[in-house]
Amino acid sequence: MKKNQFHCCATCKHFRAVKEDSKISYFCSRLGYETKPDYVFNCWDPKERVKSLMKKRERDKQ
User: Fold this and answer.
1) Model pTM?
2) I need a surface site. Which of 22, 39, 50, 58 has the fewest CB within 10 A?
C-alpha cells in the first residue's frame, strides 16, 4: 500500500488549533478529543486545498 505524504491530522478538515492562555491545543472536531498535528487516523478527510495539491502532484508525476 502506498503511503500518502499528506495524510495527517493537520491536513484534515476536522483539525482545529485552539489557543488558550498562550498554550495551543490541537483538537479533532469529528472524534471529539485532543490530537497532534502529525497523528494519523483512518477517518482522515483532507481539506480542499490539500485535495487540490494532491491532484496537482499526481498530474505532475505523469
Assistant:
1) 0.81
2) 22
